């Protein structure tokens, strides 16, 4: 599972950044924004609110503009990007869960500012920041707790993402067994749901749980 977070996140988002290394806008403020229905925040605002350099923001912006000319990254585009990097499996459900953590309540689309703020938190944030992102990924209902159904859905989506390249090979029974093991370690008070406090405490105190979840492998 750590592989899914590490490679999946890096691979999918590299499409937005890598291809723009060939040519970089001289200055973000001078980039033509007439393509966008949604004008991005100024570079000064983003330099203050993220830990990216001016050059890094320029690179990400150029790729974003090419893939998202309306100024929004939609769920369909996000799924397409993930799918290209995981042709051996079905990336749609995992991509949907990741996208939801980025989009929040913005009606199924991500602005450039949202994207770079999220990326900055995941790349440069503290371990607690990254753990909370993973918690939100598993909290598919957005109600502040994780139950077994939610965890199983995300675990299944990761196995589906990897297709035949899982070790051990994908089997329904082994997926559920994996989920049950991790859930028992995280549900500290054994009440059938995992709160964010339990999640943070368990992951910070037991590296084996973090490894099982891939919690600390979100670096891009």
From TrEMBL:
Family of the protein in this entry: Belongs to the recoverin family.
Superkingdom of origin organism: Eukaryota
Organism: Hymenolepis diminuta
The protein, known as: EF-hand domain-containing protein
Keyword field: Calcium, Metal-binding, Repeat
Residues of the EF-hand domain: 126-161, 174-209
Gene3D superfamilies membership: EF-hand (1.10.238.10)
GO molecular function: calcium ion binding
